[in-house]
Amino acid sequence: MRIIRHLSILAVALLVSPAIAQNYDLPIREHVFENGLRLLVIERPGEQRVVSKIFTDMGALNETPGQFGAAHFLEHLMFKGTPTLGSTDWKREKALHQQIGVAEDALIEELNRSRNDLRQRGVFHDDQHQETTPRLEELRTLIDSLNQQVLELNDEGPTKIWYQAYGGSRLTATTEQEYMKFDLDLPADRVELFLRVEADRMQNSVFRNFDAERMILVEQRLGDLNRAETEYREAMNSLVGRASMVYVPEGYANDFEQYTRRYQRELYETYFVPNNTTLIFIGGVTLEDMTPLVEKYFGHMQRRPEPARYQGREPLPSAEKRLNWRSDTLAPRVEIRYQVPGVGHPDRPGFDVLAEAFEAHLQSVVSAAGIEGKLDINTRVVHTSRFGVPASINIELVLKDAAQIAKAENVLLDELQRLGEEKLPADDVALAVKKLRTQWYRIAVDPNALAFQIGHFQIMDSWQTLQPYLEARDATSEADLRELAGKYFVARNRSIGVVLPGESRP
Amino acid sequence: MKRLLLIAALFAAPAFSQELPHPRDMDLPESNYTRPDPVDYQLVLENGLIAYVAAADQVPLVTMSAFIRAGKVSDDKQGSAEALLDALQNPGLSETDRDDFKVTLKRMTAEFSVEMHDEWTEITLNVPAEDLDEALSMFTGLLRDPAISAANIERAASSAAPADSDLGGESGPALYAGSLDAAVERFYEILYNKHPYGVQPTAQDFADLDAADVAGFHASTFVPGNMTLAVAGNIDVDEINGRLVDLFAGWNTAAVPKPKQLPSPAAAKTTLHHFPSDKLQAWLVFGHDLPQVPLEDQAALEVMNYILAGGHLWTRMTIETRYKYGYTNDASGFLEDKWFGPGGYNFRSYSRPEVISEIYENMMDEVIRIRSEEVTAKELFVAKGALAEGKFQVAYLDGYAATRSFAVERLRYGNHNRSASYVERIRGVAEDDVLKAARKYLRPDEMQVVLVGGDAFPL
User: Fold this and answer.
1) Are B326 and A215 inside 8 Å of each other by CB?
2) Which of A176, A447, B303, B395 counts the most CB atoms within 10 A of its CB?
3) What are phi and psi of A42, to 5 degrees?
4) Residues of A with Cβ-Cβ distance to B327 under 8 angstroms
5) Does the domain at residues A321-500 carry the CATH identifier 3.30.830.10?
6) ipTM
């Protein structure tokens, strides 16, 4: 495999002032292999362990309606092993998987054939449709039976157990709107184990225990729904975004029932290719150590057709939108959201500063107006606070007294407008910048958190965007914030949610 | 038919285009890990105060922590510990400058936390390196001479007032993450019923308390021989050592208090304690007390727990609840020892209510099984590797982690023998050691079973 690119961020650092470069020095070294696989390393000589991550550019953004949450489910399935990890008799197990595949095809055909009986017609889930057919039940029973036979051939501990055995820790995985990643921290001299397992996982995953694992998503969804806030937040997300899957949650129970091995396999085959993958290592390894090892395990993989990446085209903001949410369990609140650009847009770093600097100021304005409430300004959608596509800044005021909702909304709107006309105090902005800088240091000191940021920026835009992004926050002035507010805090870009006391929802 | 077979091949035949060795056959190197030597970090002051100081230069931050061998059960006059906690959490060197202290922390963009356990307390301040001088003086001043007043007692009294026991409301603890915590709290309330670990100060206790009592508790426990420090970050070690000598010179040399040795709670037969909740899930915690574990048993017990139910990993309980049946996202076991008294050993899970009794049954089956037969060589291999080469190494990962680990170990045990011998002790555990530990420390007939939500079920 030929190395076609080898870049050090030190070259990029020459473009910025020495003082700033010292603040955010990220000695990232990069190799991009011929098959498109990207390798990023921060070398920390003498460290005995290495943080290892593998990022794939796919997530909820790549799902289709009716299959929401499928990317997250794929992550779960990719823990179930491979032909060489997790089976006592792969030949027999393979034959069973083939039979399951045939049965699932028949199941899909039966679902299609009986669609007019099964599809939901009632708005209020009033069971005016048929739940199943005898043929569906027969096929599901068959699949259950085949699954049981597969289970008997499973060797306990398909992938995770080997990481455990050889000193791995922080064995986690995450799937969000834009990415899936697998994480490990292990002794540096055993880093080859990570490459062996992840190369196998990337090419040879076997979707064992599909239906049992489906129930784990149900568990996680029930956990989310235990919060009265969850459905309100999902409604707010949907209000803000019209096209982007950034705003859609991790799937509904109805979607979980629809998942098929076929669709999961399509996602897997499409996106888990070397030219859609980034490996990141921070710790006691060097780029020179890692290059031949990566080549050994990933070098045989062919560059595949580039997966179509999500382009993030939201319609232009055209009108103020409003959600009136009635709840007897949620505290009354007013929430105002504006769409903000994604990472890679020059305006995006300023919104981090704005959220920090404006929160304390706005809280004092709210209190001075005699409104009892707690303010939070954030850029979070579902679990994630930054995206490569447009998302939102959220000004949330939770109130003690519902009678103050109208007053609170007016105060917030007036102050948001004023922010576009007058500068925030310089001290507030300077403190916000310092706070963000300190927060960054707290991330950068932890190799696990740092590796995540590098990988996340690579997914959102490019790892090379990270350092300029941090520097741009440092350089943000009061005038910049006024300009941002004037540009983005406009009525047609606004979504307002209010939580009112009232009828209980079903 | 041909088409079906082709699709079937897609399901079952991944692009298996490379011969991959099994991890066992990769000839991965034997661990050559060496734990950092505490002597390299240690500073012993004349008054007996021990600090561990390390440079960690990746970013311009500094963390300073103090560990004090005194907690909520260490006070002789009930409520003193809680009032002192309030004084530490709302710091000021005098009553009038509390706001100044907070403003200074905000200006520094500092992170400040105080955590008081039953037997020990941890105070931590993390600041940018540019604020180190000022922060170190403040931190030291807080340890040596915190402002203590009647206001601390009043605030402690009001925060100790019983809260509404809301297991079903949105503002209560019965949320996705919080409900398990609520179940754990109920478990310990039951386990430590009438035991000193379970006794909370009453309103009368606070009414009987004055600032002098609280100051007396501070003066008798915040003494050099009863405290250790950890400082790590973007520092010059020699300079910090010099500063610590200056800042703590002439400080309290009062006698080191003896920790209270508390008895085990009374044994109780297995009982279900059900707390209804209207949430969509049910939360399960069951277990019993854990007596003080002698050093010779600790490694085998840790290995046994790892095989049975190590946290959210590939363990027997996970296999028998999540992997095979999809009942739950997690089924884990927690060894929660105390420094000087009886701790707890409990198992936790949660699920949709209709399968919670099956989860309990499957988890208990594993408790019985691990007491009945020896674990496999593979299980032992995995657990030893995970503990000796995973968890242990992470505790000394960098200067921040190492200084903290050393400071806690020194305060608790008075030496570093346990960490020095940890890997060897874990490596020495055999199958029959695990069986013995299971029989000695798991008591299936004395499980207190807490169920929050769902329907009560027969045990």
Assistant:
1) yes
2) B303
3) -110, 115
4) 215
5) yes
6) 0.92
